[in-house]
Amino acid sequence: MAAKEFDIPKLPTYIEIPELKPGIMQGEGPFKSIDEFQKPLGFPGEKVDNWKEVAIEKIGDLKSKYRSVQVFLDSCVKCGACTDKCHYFLGSSDPKNMPVARQDLFRSVYRRYFTFAGKHFPKLVGAKDLDDEMIDDWYNYFHQCSQCRRCSVFCPYGIDTAEISMAAREVLDTIGIGQKYCNQILGKALTVGNNLGLPEPALKDTLLDLEEEVEEDFGAPVKYPLDQKGAEILLITPSADFFAEPHIDGLIGYGKVFYQDGVTWTLSSYASEGANFGMFIGSYDIMRKAALRIRKAALDL
């Protein structure tokens, strides 16, 4: 039998770097959070009056608490290896979306307040004051980073731009400028147990309907237990598995595997979210709180 022939496209040796379009992505950034979504996370409901002092203090706290932040801020040599690796820069052509330039929004402020040269010779080292314009750029451009870490793979020094983005976002939250989407769903995850805000009765009804559907299609009484004490396995899935296609197919599959294996398992209404959005707002403390809900659910069951 003759081998099939396929037309294989030839990939270019180098990615074509777009022509720079400064400021093309400049704007107000994503929707800002409000008091209702900020308070459950321990952040101010609006921009605090002494925001500059609070922000500088928070930067100092982060660089002391996480040595990686200071190392990444100090070690960049502006080689540009990360430039054409960022899909946000390739898609927007805005130079501030280059990973190195996005880092510099944070680095320039760090140098101004935490290095000798930046304090006394700011123009020589690219140090800049933290002002309203800088904060606006932080909010806009640091939320255009998806924290995929592709740039860090190609950085010869291993600088992790995601860590810088996370630090900047945590500073912004600390002064009362949070991002609505992430903060809203994090509040639900920390108070209700999942990003969707689905309470225990809604989860129970969803799982009962799923049992009927699976038995009808599969011909076996596959159960999807909730809060069953003494179970061998606690399953924590992303909350999208409870209602959205094709995610719910994954949950159906888990139940079939456990049924076939004959093990006892359960889902938890207290911790019904496997995703940890604390990473997206840059707060390791919030990430820890979200993770501890899963630990508590496991201990309680």
Summarize the structure.
With 301 residues, the protein is mainly alpha-helical. Helix content is 50%, strand content 1%. The protein folds into 2 domains: 35-178, Orthogonal Bundle (Fumarate Reductase Iron-sulfur Protein, Chain B, domain 2); 187-300, no CATH class.
Which key features would you list for this structure?
2 strands; 2 domains; 1% strand; Fumarate Reductase Iron-sulfur Protein, Chain B, domain 2; two-stranded parallel ribbon; 301 residues; 14 helices; mainly alpha; globular
Polypeptide structure, described:
With 301 residues, the protein is mainly alpha-helical. The protein has 2 domains: 35-178, Fumarate Reductase Iron-sulfur Protein, Chain B, domain 2, CATH 1.10.1060; 187-300, no CATH class. 50% of the residues lie in helices and 1% in strands. It contains 14 helices and 2 strands. The chain has helices at residues 35-38, 51-65, 67-75, 87-92, 99-114, 116-120, 132-142, 150-154, 161-174, 180-191, 200-218, 247-261, 278-281, 284-300; strands at residues 233-234, 265-266. A two-stranded parallel ribbon has the order 1-2. Helix 12 (247-261) links the parallel strand 1 (233-234) and strand 2 (265-266). It is globular and about 75 Å long. The model has no long low-confidence stretch (mean pLDDT 92).
